[in-house]
Amino acid sequence: MVALHHANITVTCTPVQIDHGEWQAALFFVLPENAACLHDGQLIGKGPFTVAFDADLHEHEKATVIELGVEIATPPEAQNGTLLFITGHSSHHFDVLKLLTQQSELPLFMGNAFCEVLSQQRVPLNDALRIGLRGLLDEAVRRDAMIRMTGHYDPDTAFADVLRTRGMTA
Predict the structure, then answer these.
(1) What is the pTM of this model?
(2) Torsion angle of alpha carbons 4, 170, 15, 143, nearest 10°?
(3) How far, in Å, CA of 17 to CA of 38, rounded?
(4) How far, CA to CA in Å, does 26 sit from each of 6, 58, 106, 164?
(5) Largest CA distance in the chain
(6) Dist. CA 125–CA 7, nearest whole Å
(7) How many angstroms separate the CA atoms of 121 and 21, rounded?
């Protein structure tokens, strides 16, 4: 969480090993200091919190970007985050998505701006989500292979364009 805070990133998903177990993707969410779900720096609700996901494929002419939206139902209002993956540019992005297609649950860690873990839980990943992510991952890999063959592969441009169209900043 310290690295997230220093990079001004509020949400990330990365491979981890918990208690020397199998590698798995884990979600880390840094809550802003002014989040409505915080009171005196602590979460208002104890959790576990309902977590919803949505996913989309951005078919840019230069590369394919997978968007994964996350909504954590903290009281009094939900916390939202967006993850963007470029599977053909970073093996890390590919690995995270591949793990998400195989896991039955996702470890979620929520922390504050002072890098303290405020909540942790395991979020069930149902078959529909795993199958949907697998389809997006397969499509992204196929598209990017074709774009590479044309010599027009430029994942940085695709990423920047998706950020701009979504009203985000890097």
Answers:
(1) 0.90
(2) 180
(3) 29
(4) 19, 23, 6, 26
(5) 55
(6) 28
(7) 16
Spatial neighbors of 78 by CB under 8 A, at least 6 apart, are 71, 72
Dihedral sign, CA of 11, 49, 76, 70? positive
Six token digits for residue 145: 């292979």
At 6, list the tokens. Answer: 């220093």
> What string of DSSP letters covers the chain?
-HHHHHTT--EEEEEEESTT--EEEEEEEEPPTT-TTEETTEESS-SPPPEEEEEEEEE-SS-EEEEEEEEE--SSS-EEEEEEE-TTT-HHHHHHHHHHHH-SEEEEEEE-TT--EEEEEEEE--HHHHHHHHHHHHHHHHHHHHHHHHT---HHHHHHHHHHHTT---
One-letter amino acid identity for 149? M
Closest CA to 82 of 98, 65, 94, 99: 65
Q: What is the pLDDT along the chain (170 residues), one digit of tens a residue?
A: 556 555 556 899 999 999 999 999 999 999 988 889 999 989 998 889 999 999 999 999 999 999 999 999 999 999 999 999 998 888 999 999 999 999 999 999 999 877 789 999 999 999 999 999 999 999 999 999 999 999 999 999 999 999 888 777 65
